[in-house]
Design brief:
The protein has 185 residues and is mainly alpha-helical. The protein folds into two domains: 61 residues, 434 Repressor (Amino-terminal Domain) (Orthogonal Bundle), CATH 1.10.260.40; 112 residues, no CATH class. It has eleven helices and two strands, in the order E-H-H-H-H-H-E-H-H-H-H-H-H. It has a two-stranded antiparallel ribbon with strand order 1-2. The longest helix is centred in the middle third of the chain and has 19 residues. It is elongated and about 60 Å long. The two termini are 38 Å apart. The mean pLDDT is 80.
């Protein structure tokens, strides 16, 4: 069963405050079906960015007044991504699971996977200064924080700041995969 999308909203409240607008009327106004409006209001579906802006504009509110992002979901997503990366899932399998489990679009799933990898790679460098910014890349930031806090700093960097762990093996495999991909193009 799919998890609730990480975006919550106040669409139903805005619609009801707007002269008891029906779900059908809202759908017609923004170019979606009544069923889509129902799914959005029940937080079972996250609208496209275009639809979200149309909803906000229709009710004369800022987009952040109509929709909010659940910050805790970044950590949940990062934790889940770390388990798939550790398990050496294929990119296709990981992205398909992100779509079905988190309700992401295929494009967003690919970006989340890339962000998760970036967080792992930055944590493996062993430099706290390379920590991703939470506002610009919250998934990479959460992945980095989870992984960084799990390292025994003395053991992880025991020999001349050279990391030793299962994640170093993952990084070697990932770099080999990238070079194989680049070589076949």
């Amino acid at each position: 069963m799919a998890r609730k999308p990480p975006i919550s909203n106040s669409v139903k409240e805005l619609r009801e405050r707007h002269g008891d607008m029906t779900q059908q009327q809202l759908g017609d106004a923004i170019g979606v079906t009544r069923q889509t409006v129902i799914a959005i209001e029940q937080n079972r579906y996250s609208p496209s960015l275009e639809s979200a802006f149309r909803i906000a504009r229709l009710f004369s509110v800022g987009i952040e007044d109509a929709f909010s992002w659940d910050e805790l979901s970044h950590r949940e997503l990062a934790t889940w991504l770390l388990s798939t990366l550790e398990g050496r899932w294929s990119d296709e399998r990981t992205c398909d699971a992100l779509v079905s489990e988190f309700g992401l679009t295929a494009d967003t799933a690919r970006k989340a996977l890339d962000s998760g990898r970036d967080g792992v790679i930055r944590a493996i460098t062993g430099k706290k200064a390379s920590r991703p910014e939470p506002k610009t890349d919250p998934v990479a930031h959460a992945t980095y924080d989870i992984l960084w806090s799990s390292f025994d700093q003395d053991e992880f960097f025991a020999t001349g700041r050279t990391p030793t762990s299962k994640w170093l093996d993952w990084l070697r495999d990932y770099k080999a995969k990238l070079s194989t991909r680049e070589g076949s193009q």
